[in-house]
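I had to read the description of the data format several times before I understood it. The format is easy to grasp once an entry is in front of the reader. For illustration, here is how one protein appears when written out as sequence plus structure tokens:
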Amino acid sequence: MADKQHPSLLVLAEQAWRGELDLQFEHHPVHRYYPGSFRLMDGLLGFKGIAGFYVIDSGDGLVMLDAGHLLDVKRCFEETRREWPETPVVAAIYSHHHVDHVFSVTAFDAEADERGWPRPTVYAHERVPAHFDRYQATLGWNTAINRRQFAIDAPHYRWPDSYRYPDVLYRGNLTFRRGELTFELTHGRGETDDITWTWIPERRILHTGDLFIWAVPNAGNPQKVQRYVGDWADSLERMLPLAAEILLPGHGLPILGADRVRRALDGTARYMRSIEEQSVAAMNRGLSLDQVVQAVTPPVDLADEPYLQPVYDDPSFLVRMVWRRYGGWWDGEFDNLVPATKRAQAEAWVELAGGVERVVERALAASSDGDHAVACHLIEAVRHAAPGNAGVHEARAAIYRANAGAQVSSMARNILNHAALASDRGRRDLASDD
């Protein structure tokens, strides 16, 4: 169970709802790990690693709602056995294929083999196996992009290459019963195209997976496959009539109370609907991507909601994801249709500016003035023009760190810090052969 030095998830959940927790750093919904496990109510155990995951006693075996990361496997097994020493895990439900949600079942598979029990039955949407296959085909790419996203300065880091595939697949909806509980599985699209959200009517429990993460939804990740902003709102709106009393999120802290659950679901759905509708309206005017990003503003009436702060994804990234879905790869800037190489462009601009030293000087001045975006553009151009120049890399590291420090979104902050770490070593990118 929870360490006495760490407050219960329920205590933290109340503080978070009242806006009393620092969700940008100290209690970040993705980056903060809470040791041990937490009894959320009789028969329900909660864990918060990179993601949240849960074990519920059905009265006829334990059912897992998600299964955590590789780092969670030992803890999940030990804490579950401390709570229920002899009750087998009979089923698990994957909310989607991401690696922070799918690994702890393996410990219970091994236990079942040792004790002569049936292995847990894993339920998931029918697209999950293809995503595991994709991960195995793109191990190098996923290693690189996650090193950037989480600023992992560890050359030995590698993306997982083995997965526990599901046993039962479904397409639209699936319901199964175990013991005293009914598990109603519904497919949706949002962060992925293989989402399962689960409703347990007897306990009024809603497990949303990553459709709710105690932050602006992770619908714009700049390095990942297509995400679905409007569909995200659709899924949340389908949950509203259930009048759930407990919301178990994919990241962050539980929400208790029907009024709070409704407010969280409705507010997040309205946020996502507004972003997509504004983006599409701007695209329908024939605007470029740069113009569309400038035209979209997150809903002002939701700006103070503690569960909708941009501490992970950046709202502008969501706009770019809408563009990618409906607008293709070209950003609408005519010089970018058949562009010169970045180096050729950079050499021309640096020559016009009067040389490397003048551009570095101007970039540092812009950074000092707080104009971080312009500073990054300038220093990146001069790095392309003079890739081996140690002075350029020294300035580049300082400029990217300054920009990172100004970011609320940890995703933006980490990627910018990754660039700074690379220049500390005289490189453009630590996750690339370049």
